[in-house]
Amino acid sequence: MTDLAPHELRVLLAVGSEGGFSAAAVVLGLTQSAVSHSVRTSERKLGAVLFGRGRSGATPTAAGQRALAHARQVLRLLEVMGAEVRGAETGTAAGPLRIAAFRSAALHLLPRALERLTARHPEIVPEVRIVREVGPGTAGEVLEGRADLGIATIGTTSPVPPRLVGGVLVEEGYALVHPAGHAAPRSLPLVDWTENCTSYTRQWWAEQDWLPAATVEAEDDGAVLSMVSSGFGMAVMPELSLIGAPPSVQITDLGPDRPTRSVGYVTTPELVKSLAVRALIRELRAVRQPG
Fold first, then answer.
1. What dotted CATH number matches 173-258?
2. Cα distance between residue 123 and residue 128, in whole Å
3. Closest CA relative to residue 218, chosen from 247, 195, 246, 201
C-alpha cells in the first residue's frame, strides 16, 4: 500500500464535512473531477470504499469514518510538529490547543487551568468545545481527531478508554439537592438529566428504594439546579455541578456509601508528548480540587 499524502487526507476530510464531492471541490478550490480522482486514489491505496455515493451526496462508510478520524489525527500531528520544531530552541509551545469538555468541567475546572496556562504560555490559543457527556462524549472527540484533549468522566475499573491515555483529576461525590428548609425533601419529585446517571452510579441508583423514577428530564445540570431552586423537586448531583449553588437550595450529604464519579483528562499517546498538551495537564492537576 502506498501512503496517503497530506493533500489526499484534506480532500477526504472536505468530502466528509461537506457531504459531497462538488461542495468539497468548492471549498478546496478544485474541480469535482479532481476531488473524485483523489478519493478514488485514496480508496485504491487503502483497499476500501470510503464513501457511499448517491443522489443525496457522499456518506462515509464504516471504513470511511475510521479513515476520517485517522486523517484528522495525522494532519493535527503535522501541525503540532511544525509548531514544536519552530519552538525547539526556546522550549515554547504555540498555536491552537483544542479541548473538549462537558458543561460542569468547562464551567468550574477548566477556566482556572486555562488562566494559568495562558499566563505561562501566552502563545498557546485554547479552543474549547462544550460536549455532552453521553455516548462517545469528550473521549469520542479525541478519538475522532476533533480535540487534542478531553475532560471526561471516566470509571475506576476502566480509567481510560482504549486507544487513549489519561488520568483522574477529581473524584467527586454526589449529594442530595433540594429546596432549602423543605420538611420532607425525599418526598419530592425527582429531577434528572441524561448525563447524570452513568454506569458508575447506576448500581447505587437502583439500590435506593426512596428514589423514584425521574418525572422531569432536563437538558443539563444547570436546568436541574434551577428547577430544584424554584421548589419543583429534588435531585442527586455531583460536586462540580453544585459549585455556586444558590442559597435557595440545600445540599445534604448522602453518607459514606454515596456514589462518586471520576473526572479526568484523556488524549492520544502521540499528543500527550506535545508541549501544549503536557502544559495543560500540569495546570489541570494544579487546580483539580473542586470549589
1. 3.40.190.10
2. 16
3. 195
